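Action item from last meeting closed. Structure (177 res):
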């Protein structure tokens, strides 16, 4: 049993739920906000992927985020905002955002899953005890790598659940398999 099996299992199950929730949705439904103070599924989906990219590539491996290195920020129409998708954006800016085509959203999701799937199985129990600092702003608290990955799982599950809920709001439950 690998040290990260439960982390991988949790992320994979969440990704399956998200895929099932959005599989039959068109771009209009993905982009619609339930109300003016709620995010669209497209925004939450992009944000969930940004958080994973940020954690896996930048915070945990000190490498360039795919968002920047692979040009996803440009593909998302945010070339002037390398943070993008919820990292300090106002409610007005989020509401004004036009999501990229569905294929771009799914492409980023696929790329983020790939880097995560490549990184997590390589970690040992000893690696999980390594001190890391996150988030890089604010308090800069030191935690273990295991705690950082727990935060990553929490973020993914929260946003996956939001996507599934909003899907139910628009189209019915449909995401549960």
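Sequence:
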């Amino acid at each position: 049993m690998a040290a990260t099996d439960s982390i991988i299992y949790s992320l994979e199950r969440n990704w399956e739920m998200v895929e099932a929730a959005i599989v039959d949705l068109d771009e209009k439904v993905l982009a619609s906000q339930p109300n003016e103070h709620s995010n669209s599924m497209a925004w939450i989906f992009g944000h969930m992927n940004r958080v994973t990219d940020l954690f896996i590539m930048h915070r945990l491996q000190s490498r360039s985020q795919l968002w920047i290195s692979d040009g996803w920020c440009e593909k998302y129409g945010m070339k002037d905002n390398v943070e993008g998708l919820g990292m300090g954006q106002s409610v007005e800016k989020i509401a004004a955002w036009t999501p990229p085509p569905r294929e771009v959203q799914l492409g980023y999701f696929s790329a983020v899953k790939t880097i995560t799937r490549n990184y997590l199985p390589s970690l040992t129990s000893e690696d999980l005890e390594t001190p890391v600092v996150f988030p890089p702003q604010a308090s800069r608290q030191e935690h273990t790598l295991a705690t950082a990955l727990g935060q990553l799982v929490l973020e993914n599950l929260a946003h996956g659940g939001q996507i599934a809920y909003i899907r139910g709001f628009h189209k019915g439950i449909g995401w549960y398999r």
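Note appended to the action item: Residues 145-171 form the longest helix (27 residues).
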